[in-house]
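Entry type: protein chain
Record version: 2
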Amino acid sequence: MPEKLAERRCRPCEGGTEPLTSEQAQELLRALHADWRLSEDGLGITRSFRFPAYEKTLEFANAAAEVAIAEDHHPVLTVAYGRCTVSYTTHSINGLSDNDFICAAKTDRLADGTTT
């Protein structure tokens, strides 16, 4: 992959855009943290992040939301004490797009403390 996913920007997915194939999704998944999982149906990716306190969990969820707003690509964020689960899919194409992996890589950077 010539450029790192986290350095890329999301592009709008319009009608006619095909979702990634299983092979393409698996290749991009290898570029992410090993905790990301492909859903059984192949339509989404998910990772749970753990934190020592609820306050830290909320800080992370808010930072992930800022990434989503900046990229105009929005995950499902599930917040619980000490854990935030992040799930990406591209609803407009009913599957995965490069945008899901770009945002996942940016979310990984948040978790490891580097900038997005």
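Comment: Helices lie at 22-29, 54-71, 98-112.
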